Amino acid sequence: MIIRKIRSSIKKILLSIINNVNHLKIYSLEENINFGKNVTIGKNVVIKTTDGGKIIIGNNVSIEANSYLYAQSGEVIIGENCFVGFGSQVVAKKSINIGADCLISAYSIIRDANHGTKKNIPINAQPHNVEEIIIEDDVWIGAHSVVTAGCTVGQGAVVGANAVVTKDIEPYTVVGGVPAKFIKKRVD
């Protein structure tokens, strides 16, 4: 009788813990997602891999609530000491490599694939144009920014809020606008 009560109490405690941790959704086989040490993940974050995709998250990374990391046959790598802001999306069909010490502000979108735009094929049937994205170390991507397929954002660069990156960004430059254009060099 006492053992049943203990089991029942333990079961209630475990169910309570499981229900309270239900804010992180991971859709993958365990070997396809690797977490470093001291990784902080906010509520309602989705981390998903399909078709052999892989996600690697370095040490001391913080991913805020409602963010979405998805490796669809591709690879997402987030280096050490990075921050991914609220509601951001990082989606790879090929490869997205985010270096160390990067700040990805709220609602940013980083995707390495775009739909084609040929005239005689319905847009939803277009093949994807897929090219890797590289975000080097010490980069700050401003809120609501978009980084498109095939772009490299150089070390120490700053992408202003609401910018759309459609071509490579030189190291230690500040860019902004749609499409993102050079504003100034970072100086000491």
Tell me what you see in this structure.
The chain has 188 residues and is mainly beta. It has a single domain (24-185), classed as UDP N-Acetylglucosamine Acyltransferase, domain 1 (3 Solenoid), CATH 2.160.10. It contains one helix and 23 strands. The protein has one helix at residues 2-20; strands at 24-27, 33-35, 40-41, 45-50, 54-57, 62-63, 68-72, 75-78, 83-84, 89-92, 95-98, 103-104, 109-111, 113-115, 128-130, 133-135, 140-141, 146-147, 152-153, 158-159, 164-165, 173-176, 181-185. The strands form four sheets. Strands 3-6-9-12-17-20-22-23 form an eight-stranded mixed β-sheet, with no helix packed on it. Strands 1-4-7-10-13-18-21 form a seven-stranded parallel β-sheet, with no helix packed on it. Strands 2-5-8-11-16-19 form a six-stranded parallel β-sheet, with no helix packed on it. The longest helix has 19 residues, at 2-20.
